[in-house]
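Z., the sequence and structure:
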Amino acid sequence: MKNRLMKHQLLRTLVELRGNPRACVYTEPMWGLSMNLCLPYATVYMLTFGMSDTQVGIVSSVYMFSQMIFAFLAGAIVDKLGRRKSTAIFDFLSWSLPCLIWAFSQGFWYFVVAALLNGMMKIPTVSWDCLLIEDAPKDKITQIYSLVILASNLSALFAPISSVLVAKLTLAPAIRILYINAFVVMTAKLLILFKFSTETAVGRIRREATHGKSLGELLSGYKGAAKKIRTSKGTIFAIIISILVEIAAMLGSTFWQIIVSKRIGVPDELLPIFPMVKSIISIILFFTVITHIRQARLKWPLYGGFLSAIIGCLLLISVRGTDFLGYLILSVSLIFEALGGAVLATLRESLVAIHVDPAERSNILALLQTTVMLVSVPFGYIGGMLSDISRVLPFVLTIGLLLLGILATALYYRSAIRGNESG
């Protein structure tokens, strides 16, 4: 039995992980006992304070704006402090601290301040990504990212805890308790990761190279990274896909709860059940579909991911009530959404990791994240305005973005084939 399990690519990779990749992957399920208990209610929690859909969209845009600023600074900060220390410091500032603000929130401006702090998460996004990948075997990158996303989905299995609390205490008091819990668990997570990780080889080199340099001098080093991005069609394609997937994911995570609660009429205590079901579906898909994706052949998986996500959106906006047919269509939409989300999240990260120059990884990732956030900033507000008109419209916008993803994929691989033919 053990030998049979070890033949599975993902399980073998999980067991064979060592050093920083193991520390990063093994601590990731702690999301399940922290932020993932709160996230299914994050948007409707704001509505309990009398906020409008537009105000929710504004908070989302503030969050995106903050991410853009800190994404730009991330490369320099991560090189200066090192991957390990940057992850510990800014995970606390961007996750633990906002959890306390959310827990004791009294209205719109509390959420704005928390969003500004939460935007710092782009620094540990870069540093954690470097910590995860820089010492890992390059041929295992797609499997490692699959394990990270799988861990995130496994953690959503704890969602019924929040459902029980909401049913017992009502929404606002329950979510306040869950945010306090998230503060404790997220702080424990970053401390455990710090203890069991070490600075990466590239990180030590970059820290030595930046010793004694000011932040301004370090930021000037982005010129070389920008040049490498401009001359790499693969990196540009990875940025385009990241932008489209990021905006689609943001619109989905912000307005899914609203359309399901306010338009379809699903009771509050049932809201976490759907992300849990989606996560179970995603886990099954990881072991049956995504594990067969080959790193050298990503075109058709990208097409499939975008198409599946589009079908999920179409089914979602077709649901009008909570009768048997409504719940059935909503459940089927989750299957397509889970498949599309899992595939696109994995391939988005894989494309970046494959095409980025390892020597400039932190700077290129910082510029990539800045570009993604710069383009994404208006879409929270746009989505909020559209949702105030009709709860369906944010998902119509999402479908348009996903169609652009299919077009971008077709154009990139067509040019790649022509380049090979001319070569």
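The mean pLDDT is 86. The radius of gyration is 21 Å.

Let me know what you think.
H.
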